[in-house]
Amino acid sequence: MKSYQFILQILLAVFISSQLSGCSGPLNAASKIGQVIMDPNIPVGKLDERPSTLSLTFLSEKDINENEEGEASPIQVQIVYLTEDSKLLESYYEQFSESKLDEILGKNYLDHQDYTIKPGDYKVIPDIILDEKNRYLGVIAYYSEPEKSQWRSVIKLDGKGHNYHVLVHLRRLEVEMMEYE
Fold first, then answer.
1. Where are the alpha helices (H) located in the chain, listed in sequence order?
2. N or C: which terminus of the chain carries fewer CB neighbours within 10 A?
3. What is the DSSP pairing of strand 53-60 with strand 163-170?
4. Residue 44: phi, psi to the nearest 5?
5. May I ask which residue range the UniProt record assigns to the signal sequence (predicted)?
6. pLDDT per residue over 39-61, tens digit each?
């Protein structure tokens, strides 16, 4: 019993001295540790040291990717994570049916995700944690008439310290990416 009282006295003394000295660091750290234990998704560390996150939203018009009968149809879309954007911007559409993305984009390629978007769709993708080497985000939309369409778009990113919200807007013959708040 005496050892229990002694431990309580020491803890009380440490608490009081930290409060009097204005040093709340140990208490803040303990509080943060408790929060992380309760919710492991809570980010830890300074924002500029953490990996960036990407919240991705797809919005498609009702007349996207019209087929030969003039009816809108679903479209295949690839979101591409890049270290550099020049190879994607200089590529031509036919390359993507002949070769794999990593072969076309070489060392600029980090990863990609495939999606199928229907006409009139609104789709929110759960947050994605970016690689710290990620500097650009590209989109490739596989339109049925690529020669008439703007089938790719790129935006600049930083792989560390940011929370990005990006809209991928699919129009009849154009895909556009933009950041929003």
1. 2-20, 25-38, 86-90, 95-98, 101-105
2. C
3. parallel
4. -120, 140
5. 1-29
6. 665 556 565 679 999 999 999 99
Structural tokens at position 77: 């879309």
**More reliable by pLDDT, 177 or 180:** 177
Cα gap 76→95, rounded to integer Å: 16
3-class SS of residue 64: coil
Q: Which helix (H) or strand (E) holds 124?
A: strand 122-129
CA angle 147, 150, 152 (to 5 degrees): 115
Question: Taking the CA of residue 126 as centre, how many other CA atoms within 13 Å lie in the half-sphere pointing to its CB?
Answer: 1
Token reading at 55: 């919240």
**Residue recorded with tokens 């310290």:** 161
Residue 172 · residue 160 · CB < 8 Å = no
Torsion angle (degrees, nearest 10) of CA 125, 135, 160, 54: -10
